[in-house]
Amino acid sequence: MSPVYRLACLSLLVTLSLSMFLLEGMLPVPFFVPGAKLGLANLVTVIALYSLPYAKDVFCMLVLRIGIASALGGGPTVFLYSLGGGLLSLGAMVWLKNREGFSIPCISMAGGFFHNFGQLLVAVLVMESPALWFYLPVLGGCGIATGWLIGMVSATVLRKLSYTKRYTRDR
Question: Digits of tens for pLDDT over the chain (171 positions)?
């Protein structure tokens, strides 16, 4: 992969991820659990994890998206919470991807759980309130459920991309 092609792919993925994040902010929240979200931007992260040759590219994409999204409407607090959740989530997904026997939905579910775990960890450290850990079963359960949904959609998109690559290569 040439450096220019790599930069173009990363730019497009950051833009798509940021667009999904902003779109999700405009949608009415379908959850009764405060703080729970669908995690549409994670759809791009999971697809990038399986499409890009290096995990460091996915890391770069994630940090850029979090930084830009925070600058557009969150501020430093949102940046800390998002970065804590995003990095822990990506770390768990990369680790599981390198192991045998884990499907894309399963890896995405782990990402959803660890994203919420990371955000709660930051909240406990910032607010100095260990009682926030009691919220983990509720928020973690939502992360697992939305992670499964994102994983199923990601697996479908990746199958279609694989078919498209094969089709265009043969022509």
Answer: 788 988 998 999 999 999 998 898 888 776 677 777 888 999 999 999 998 889 999 999 999 999 999 998 878 988 999 999 999 999 999 999 999 999 999 999 999 999 999 999 999 999 999 999 999 999 999 999 999 999 999 999 999 987 666 544 443
Phi first, then psi: what are they for 168, rounded to 5°? -75, -30
Entry pTM = 0.88
Instruction: Write out the two tokens for 11.
Output: 């730019």
Tell me, what CATH number does 150's domain have?
Answer: 1.10.1760.20
Our measurement of the distance from residue 45's CA atom to the centroid of its chain's CA atoms, rounded to an integer in Å, reads 5
**Owning domain of residue 33:** 3-170
Distance of CA 55 to the CA centre of its chain: 13
State how many domains the chain has: 1
